[in-house]
Amino acid sequence: MDHFNYQGKDLYAEGLKVSELAQQFGTPLYIYSKATLVRHMNAFKEALKGRESLVCYAVKANSSLAILNLMASMGSGFDIVSEGELRKVLKAGGDAKLCVFSGVGKRESEIAFALKQGIRCINIESVPEVAVISKVAKDLGVVANVAVRVNPNVDAKTHPSISTGLKQNKFGITFELAKEVYKKIAQDPNLNATGIDCHIGSQMTSGAPIVEATEKLLELYQTLKDLGIKIDHIDIGGGLGVTYGDETPPSPYEYMQAVFSKIGDDSLAVYVEPGRAMVANAGILVTKELYIKEQGEKRFCIVDAGMNDLIRPALYNSWMNIIEVTKGEGQKVNCDVVGPVCESDDFLGKDRKLCLKEHDYLAVRGAGAYGFSMASNYNSRLLPCEVMVDGDKVFVIRDRQSYEDLWAHEHLLGV
Ligand code: LLP
Fold first, then answer.
1. pTM score, whole prediction
2. pLDDT at 165
3. Can you give the pLDDT at residue 156?
4. Among 206, 235, 276, which residue has the most ligand 1 atoms within 8 Å of its CB, making it the best to mutate?
5. One domain, residues 38 and 172
6. Are 212 and 308 found together in one domain?
7. Which protein residues touch ligand 1 with a CB less than 6 Å away?
8. Are residue 262 and residue 118 in the same domain, yes or no?
């Protein structure tokens, strides 16, 4: 069920008219549907039912406190990649004991903070990181639970920029090396290997690559078992894709069933780190049409949201659905929907058929993941406002940035 629906000509976010929200809060505006977030979290919980398991929502997809708080209130764990993300999870009421710490470049201070908070597991991404975690744990007098993020060299069949499980990528450790790393960990009194981890890529629209990766992880699990190293979980990372256009990704249930079909051992817990699948289709970005500009063959619809608000189209050439907030009556015309930023790549969509009218609103669908979390102040534009709709109620979950905020932490020379 879609919580962003037309009723007559008007797009609704749950029980509220999107055009009225845009008028009330201004644009660009991120609108999230609470019911969609809840539904997605429940879909993952349902998919994991009956197994030792943990959902670790990947904070990077959308780290707004209200969203983290909602996830935490539903018992979610979190995949974090920085001290900042862990601090936001804690601030939002999340539990470090349900958090896994991924990332290729963890600083010592970040590892120390995570260990002090009682992080559940640190996913090791390189050989030198082993010694750093060991030293930090020793200094703190704790034993660090760790997993090795292996690079299974599996093609996630997704956009090259968001593919991470091939040997040319910077992520993870090869299988050959991983075995040696586990042996090293086993001899280290400051470390305790609890898991095997991987994350092969994002926006996967088939279960096949993760099944292939799982099979490889299980081989390693067996090898380690034979060496007397007992692992209690495998972490299959995130990566389940969503429908932006005509993609037909598996449901969380189908995806997890495919993984479970390979894992005979019921005592082996399975962790999963969904980001996009949890939040993408729970959010839209609403923008106002400022100018319709016609030049020769080309027609541009210049809107007030740009790559600073939503960078996915500019960065990855991602196709995101753009719809009219109030269905127009005129003829649909071909256009490029472009932002106000001074870059040729500043577009939200090219070659779209829309009914255009200056000062009307458009909405970009699927904007809940890697939308606000990748927003910037480029061109000294203000970070947008975020609201969450719950039935017929709306909550501002982040104020629009103010101009004062823009220079709040800057200093003139000698002052
Ligand atoms: N776990 C790890 C270790 C990750 O690196 C990621 C995403 C996830 C989980 C969550 O993956 P998801 O379920 O969202 O696919 N900015 C790009 C996506 C980058 C993904 C980075 N890692 C985009 O907008 O498409």
1. 0.97
2. 66
3. 81
4. 276
5. yes
6. no
7. 58, 60-61, 79, 102, 162, 199, 202-203, 237-240, 273-277, 312, 316, 370
8. yes
Do 359 and 256 share a structural domain? no
Q: Which of 41, 56, 60, 320 to mutate to test the pocket of ligand 1 (most atoms within 8 A of CB)?
A: 60
Lowest mean pLDDT among 44-53, 60-69, 168-177, 331-340: 168-177
* For residues 103-130, average pLDDT: 97
pLDDT attached to residue 155: 84
**Tokens 């962790």 belong to residue:** 271
For residue 274, which atom of ligand 1 is closest to its CA? 13
User: Which residue, chain included where needed, has tokens 């993408």?
Assistant: 280
Residue 164 CA: which ligand 1 atom is closest? Answer: 5
Q: When comparing pLDDT for 166 and 211, which is higher?
A: 211
Per-position DSSP letters for 295-328, written without gaps between them: ETTEEEEEES--TTT--HHHHH-----EEESB--
Q: Look at residues 278, 311, 343 and tell me which one is the last residue of a structural domain.
A: 278
Query: What residues are annotated to the active site?
Result: 342
Residue with the larger pLDDT of the pair 415 and 258? 258
Q: Do residues 256 and 277 make contact, with C-beta atoms less than 8 angstroms apart?
A: no
> Which three-class secondary structure state does DSSP give residue 78?
strand
Are residues 290 and 270 both part of a single domain? no
- DSSP conformation letters of 56-80: EEEGGG---HHHHHHHHHTT-EEEE
Residue 39 pLDDT exceeds 80: yes
* Range(s) of the domain holding residue 62: 34-278
Task: Choose the final residue of a domain: 278, 307, 340.
Answer: 278
Assigned token pair, 231: 């692992």
More confidently predicted of 371 and 159: 371
